[in-house]
Amino acid sequence: MSKRILIVEDEKNIVDILSFNLSKEGYETLEAYDGDAGLQLALEQDPDLILLDLMLPKRSGFDVCRSLRAAGHNTPVIMLTAREEETDKVLGLELGADDYITKPFSMRELLARVKANIRRSEMAAPAAAGAASPAAGRMDLGRISIDQDLMVVCKDGRPLELTQREYELLKFLAAHPGKVFSREALMEHVWNYEGYVGDVRAVDVAVRRLREKVEDDPASPQFVVTRRGLGYYFNV
């Protein structure tokens, strides 16, 4: 069964190009030309991934993403933006977008990101479905414990409210305590972008949000630690 991708973009020529290229890759597409229609289709049709423009009539991409996450939908969202301002990209990630790509973009890069996000979502689904795989087990890391069957992280015995991305990031770092991973390496291993070269601010945003939930003092992290100039590691 082919995957369905919702394109929410007000420029028809861009929608046509995206729809044509995605269809060539075997995807089904849904199209919306304003934020209200995009949100309605996302909630009713439950697509496998959403390509979401930021600047839309009626409702901005920020509002669409915020509303989706508030409704409990974890559909992967890749934001499309013509803006270069870092604040826009960071805000999109803070609101729950999985990634962003800046116009004009390479179709090859966009297709690679679509594939990677759908694959990550598919990999997470069986794990979330429950503990049919007891071998996954539990990681006890001092004050932090990770139940890989239930996909739950606890600190001092209390469960933490982590997003799927934050859980995956913490689990990956915790599985290699003390080992430093560059942002590019984390984009490969956690975001599933093979041979990634490009903007890595998504990693910094995810780390910052994770620290706000895991650390006693996010400004002086004890668990998810920065090795300046090199990357991040998990400190037991």
What does this structure look like?
The protein has 236 residues and is α/β, with parallel strands linked by helices. Helices cover 41% and strands 19% of the residues. It contains eight helices and eleven strands. The strands form three sheets. A five-stranded parallel β-sheet has the order 2-1-3-4-5, sandwiched between helices. The longest helix is centred in the middle third of the chain and has 22 residues. It is elongated and about 55 Å long. The N and C termini lie far apart (43 Å). About 4% of the residues have low confidence.
Describe the structure using short key phrases.
5-stranded parallel β-sheet; 41% helix; alpha/beta; 236 residues; 19% strand; 4-stranded antiparallel β-sheet; 8 helices
Order of helices and strands: EHEHEHEHEHEEEEHHHEE
Radius of gyration: 18 Å
Low-confidence stretches: 127-135
Percent helix range: 40-55%
N→C terminal distance? 43 Å
Q: Report strand order across the widest sheet.
A: 2-1-3-4-5
DSSP summary: helix tally: 8
Which helices and strands occur, and which strands form pairs?
Layout: E1 4-8, H1 12-24, E2 28-32, H2 35-45, E3 49-53, H3 61-70, E4 77-81, H4 86-94, E5 99-102, H5 107-128, E6 138-141, E7 144-147, E8 152-155, E9 158-159, H6 164-174, H7 183-189, H8 201-214, E10 224-227, E11 231-234
Helix pairs in contact: 2-3, 6-8
The gist of it:
By secondary structure, the protein is of the alpha/beta class.
